[in-house]
From TrEMBL:
Annotated CDD domains: VOC
SUPFAM superfamilies: Glyoxalase/Bleomycin resistance protein/Dihydroxybiphenyl dioxygenase
Pfam name, any one: Glyoxalase
Name the UniProt record assigns to this protein: VOC family protein
Organism listed in the record: Psychromarinibacter sediminicola
Amino acid sequence: MSAPELKVQQIHHVAYRCRDAKETVEWYKKMLNMDYTLAFAENHVPSTHEPDPYMHIFLDAGNGNVLAFFELPTKPEMGRDENTPKWVQHLALKVADHDTLVAYKEHLEANGVEVLGVTDHSVFHSIYFFDPNGHRIELAYDDPDSAAMAAKAAQVKDAMLAEWSQTKRAPRHADWLHAKELEEL
């Protein structure tokens, strides 16, 4: 018997903490039209066996992707890494096209959610907002020319990483990606 190839197939699920499982399910259903698919609740953590009640909820993020949350009522109030800017840690979800992105923006704003964007990343275009738990969410669609642009950017990825590793300053190899977005600066 040969050894299996060590290659990840896809993300099974991504899990975050939430303040209130029911509120989180309802928000993701209403705001992003995600289906609530599964829940686990235990008084002991299966992996560590420690006594700690939790609710673990699962939402369908499309295409076999699962977004999960844990509500942990016995733990201190959730926080965030104060040394990392709020814009860094986020979950990006793909939508079909520009019209869908704009429709989501309008839907979110009509429901009182503050939305940033549409931001032009050339390869893709995005909006950003926060869920009720303080997690930053990005909705993005691929530009119709994304394959060609991604191939062009991929050609310089190694040189960019090498230069960044030495200088910790932004290499200019792919500055065209955000040229339109940043031309006002």
